[in-house]
Structure formats: C-alpha cells, structure tokens
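Marked as duplicate of an earlier ticket. Keeping the data here for the record.
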Amino acid sequence: MPDYGHELEFGVFLPPAADQFGETLRLARLADDAGLDLVSLQDHPYQAQFLDTWTSLSVIAAATERVRVFPNVANLPLRPPAVLARSAASLDIITGGRVELGLGAGAFWDAIVGMGGQRLSAGESIDALAEAIAVIRALWTPGRGAKFEGKHYTLKGAHPGPFPAHDIGIWLGAYKPRMLRLTGRTADGWLPSSPYAPPEQLTEMNRIIDEAAEEAGRSPSDVRRLYNVGGDFSGNGKEFLRGPVKVWVEQLAELALTEGMSGFVLMVDAGGDDDLRRFAEEVAPGVRELVGQERNLGTTTVSSPVVAVADGLGVTPTPDDGTRLSAERLWDEAVRPTGPAPAPDAVYTAAGRAGSQQLIDVHDHLRAELSRVRSLVRQVADGALDVGAARSEINTMTMRQNNWTLGAYCESYCRLVTVHHTLEDRQLYPQLRRGDARLGPVLDRLTEEHHAIHDVLERVDAALVATVSDPNGITELSAAVDLLTDTLLSHLSYEERELVEPMARIPLRH
C-alpha cells in the first residue's frame, strides 16, 4: 500500500468510567499540554458505568486549548443522526473547530434494544450508517430545507444548521468488507483498532477501501487512515508495540510509509501518565522525523540498470570501489546473482528513469550520512572531539534529534536504513518481481542482504549501549561501524547495478 502523504497526527483514547472522570479529564489536559492532536472517548450509552460521551467531550473540550475531540466511535443506533449532526456542529462552533466525528454501525444489540433501540442485522446496520452519513452532511450543508428519504432515516424539510466551524471529518470504525467499501465510498477517514485489525491485515483492508474509493470516483488519499493502538514500552520488540521507544518509532513509521496509516491514537488506562508522555514527547516526534526523512528522500519509488546500459538510460549506478575496512565478511560477493540483460527494444519511460535516479539519490544520502557517523566515531575515539564540539557538529546535520549525542545520531541513522530496506522489501521488490519474474534470484539475494545488514545495525546499537557505561567500548563501536560500512556500501552498489534498468522499464505503483 502507498503512503498517502497525509500529515501525521497523534492522540489518545481515554477511559470513560463514571467514577474516574477526574482522572480522564486530567489525562486529557496532559495530552493537550504534551502537544498531542486528538483526544477521544468510546461511546456505549447502554453502559451504566460510563458517563455520556458527548457531555464528557464537551467538558474535556472546555478544559483544553488545542486538542481536537471526537467519539471513538459514536453508537449510531442510539444517537439519531439528525440530532448527532447538530450536537457535533454545536461543539465544533463552541470550540472553534476542534471536533471530529467517529461513527460505528453498532454492536451489542441486546444492550441497544434494552435502551429502546431497534435491533438490526449486520447488513441493515450498514445501510443505516450510509443513510446517517447522508443525513448528517445534509444538515451541515447550507440550503433551504433538507430532504432525505431512506429506509431507516428521513429528513422532511429540516432546516440545515448550525454549520460546523470547520469541515468535520466523518471517520468510520470498519472491519468487514462491506463496511470497508462504505468507508471508501463515503467517509473522510477510517478508524480501526489494532486488537481487531492487526498490522498484518491492514494491506488487504486498505485495498478494499481504495478500490471502493476509485469506483466512486474518489482518490484513495481522500480517506484518512487513523489507527487506535495499544502496547507497552517494556517488551523485547518482537511483538507489535512491545518494546522501547525505538521499536514504537520504527513500527509506526513503517505503517505510515507502507500502509498509509497517518493517525495513531494510543489507548490509555487510568494512571497512564508515563505512557502518554512517552508517546507524546518521544514516539510522536520520532515517527514524524523518520517519515519526514523518507518522504523528503522520495523512497516510495525506486530502481534500475546494468552499468552497460547506463548511458542509454541517462542514469549511472554507483560502482563499488572494492575498499574494505573490516576483516569480517558476511557474504560471498562472487556468487551474487545477476538479472537479465537489457533487451535491445526495451522502452524506458521518463518516470521510470526518474525513479531510477531517485534510488541513487536516496542511496547517496545514506552514504553521506554514514560518512558523518564514521567521522564522529573516529573523532571521539581519537579524543579530538569533546562533548560540546560533538553536539555542535551534530546540530548541523539533517537528522535532528531531541538529545544531541553521538548515540542518538547513530540510532537515528540505523532507523533510517531499516525503514528504507523495509520499504524496498514490502513495496518495490514485489512489484519488480511481478513485472519481470527473471529478477527473482536478485530480489531474493537483496532481501537476504537486508537481513544481514539489520544484524550489523543491531551490533552497532549494542556497541553504542556498551560505550555509554565503558569508554573503552569505542573500539568495538568503531569495528561495528567498519563492518556496517563494508556491507552497506557493497549492498547499495549491487542493488543499483541490478535494479536501475528494470525500474526504468517496469511500471511501478508509487
């Protein structure tokens, strides 16, 4: 799936318990102070232990200054859409445009019926949701008398208004194909939760939304993708969002760049101050930075040639000069497979050649940043740089960090390489393989090398940790960076040699 290019947003999903509203309000204020964008509450009107969602959101909005508030998601069967439209618009006006609208088709039908709602089948509830969206938008559109005739909802000349202070987004909590298609056809956003839509299912779900959007004459980018997520910062990183901040940053950035998810809403329990602060102050800036770097480098495209046809393409792969700094070897370069020779009648498009050059430009950036890492490590090892001078130099680099330290910079570089390789493995390589099956052995080998380079990055990270407590660890760090230099530069040249030409002739979806 592509990166839809949406601005990243981060928020929280707070507990609604009636006996803990003081805690909920405190966490909402903390989210506002910490710079988050969104605060949300679930909506279960039949749950006697929960406060009413709209009343609670109104109080939260009054107690905060910047965050936007929304139900996550509103229980439509118990909230008539005409009244819901006026409620949302009213709060949006009062807050100066700080309201969004999450909608759900309904669940827990016994409880809904117990509150006087009508029991609907799954299909009926989706039809009702589609009608509700039409009703809500009709009442937000200036005009004389709004009319709508549906099976579940009607408008018979209702006066539109009040009108929201901004274009309120209608975001649907959707999981099954029919709901996903409705999202693609009509919604402003998609709002799944990771426990019910884990990361490995997002590609297929996004595909359904995108196809429905295109069939309705919309662009897939018209649908914002927001993701309710939960996790902890104490795991080992092998599971989704179970590990240190670096794991969260890498995994969420990957979802933004490869699955188009551009809003992340953290599910927080009472007393979750530390998680909320870490999410706002460390995770959100890290994800924004990493995604921004990849977007600026244009890594959602890639590819192309063999040196022999470089002149014909107007794109020249970077040769491997054969220099090696480490005695350790992770692979045998002599047995690397090669791709098919260029066909005499191959057609190279301008977009394809631009993508090929873009791959080289991205690699050149990685090479330049690697050189800066090496220089810093060398100067620290030689005693030529003290802490103040190192910080001053790092401040001039393109990868900004919250903490200007050698370790922070090296970790940032490792993240950049990891995400770049992930994008290639999950986006570029499958398209090239479909376009020319003869590239299979080359793509398999490149993926194997990605894994090997990842292991080297882990060694660099471990050496960084050791250096913090033992200055003598700089020796091991220097050795790890030497090995990283050998493997990465060799890999980048091999990749350019083999992929520049295919990328210029195989149509790619960016």
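See parent ticket for discussion. Residues 350-382 form the longest helix (33 residues).
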